[in-house]
Structure formats: C-alpha cells, structure tokens
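Input record (one chain):
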Amino acid sequence: MFGDSLVREVNVGTNVIRLRVGLVGFLLFSALPGAATDLQQALSEGDAGNRAAVEAQKMIDKVGDEADQLYTEYRRVLQETESLRLYNQQLSDVVGAQSGEVVALEEQIRDIDNVERKIGPLMARMIEVLDRFVNLDVPFLPDERRKRMTDLNAMMKRSDVSLSEKYRRLMEAYQIENEYGRTIEAYKGTLDFQGKSRTVDFLRVGRVALLYQTADMQETGRWDPEKKAWAVLGDEFRRPIQQGLRMARKQTAPDLVKVPVPAPQVIR
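The corresponding structure, as predicted from the sequence alone:
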C-alpha cells in the first residue's frame, strides 16, 4: 500500500512538472515579439520552396523529354542525310554513265548520217541488179515478180518511208527470189505461144525447169533457157508432168518424176 501510494505521488508530481514546463514554454514563446508571425512566414516559405521544387522538377522532366525528342529527330535527320548522300552518289554515277552514252550516241548519229549517204545509192544498185536478174531469169510468175520490182522502185522515191523500211523491203524481195531456187510450185497462168494465148498449168521446179500442160493434158511443154522460147515436149512427159503438178499442189505424196532439164554448162 505504501509502495503504490508513493508511485502515484511520483507520477502525479511528474505530470505537474511537465504541465508547468509546457505552460512556461508557451508563456515564454508568447512573450517573444513577432514569434508567431515569423513561424507562419517560415512555414509559408517552406511550402513555397516545396512548390518551387515541384515546378522545377516538372520543368526538368519537360526539358529532358524535349532533349530526347531532339536527339531522336537528330538521329533521323542523320539517317536521311546518309541516305540522300548515297542516292546523290548513285545519281552522279548514273549521270556520268549517261554522259558517256550521249557521247557514244552522238558518234552513232554521225555514223548513221554517213551510212545513209552511202546506203541509198547501194540500195538503188541492188534494185537495179535484182530487176535485171528477174528479166533474165526463167519467166515464171511474171506479173507478180514485175509488180514487186515496180513497187520497190516506187518506194525508193517516197520520203515518208524510212530508210530502214526500204532496206527491209529490199531484203525481203531478195529472200523471196532466193526461195524460188529451192521449191517447186504449181500455178495457173496465161501462155502466149504459137500465136495463141491460153490458160495452162505451170510447174516450176526450182529454177532448173519451167514446164506447162494444157487443161486437157493434150499438150505439154517447157521453157528452153538457151533459145529463150517455149518448146513442146513429147507424150512421154505427159504423165510425169501431171504427177509433178499434183505433188506441187500437195495432192499426192512426194516422189521421183522425170522432167527435162538443161544440161549443166561449164562457166569460164
């Protein structure tokens, strides 16, 4: 009992002391002139500093983001600059190559002018030679071949036909004449012979033989290249010529036929 009473008295005494100390402190603080105002000002300045720090941090973050964006844009511009540099280098190479091609083309154009001045007379001589050859050749398809030569001569005088087209047509005519030498052909035509004009079947065997037969097969003949005239053949050639006509028209299978041809001659 005595111990418990002593503890309570001590505790009570301590609280009284604390209360008295707090009261004294409050009285002393209240007694200081302007103390409350200074405290309030200090607290306000602290808050303002905190707010300024927050705003400064926001500004720093914003500047950091802008710096990152600028760096990204800078890298992009560097890449574009490098791409443009490579592209310009490629264009420079292309322009250089084209400049060389232009020089080559200009030289070719000058050569073409020279060729045109030379090829025109050359083609005229080629047509003249071909025309003379047709006149001296075996007289097969006379109308068709004469018309081709007439068309060639007329074309050479036309200004609306290019030089290349003229040359192509001339080569085509030579090719056609060349093909005649290795083919056989059957066609109907008019034969002026012995004072008569008749429609007969002609058989051309390359350029070595030109034969004819009337529709009733009663007369068979050939062109004599030495005499430059037509000649009547014997009856022994009637059936072979008829067979040759059928083969040329693809009415029967190819076979050997007996036809008269001129003997080979030695050219000196």
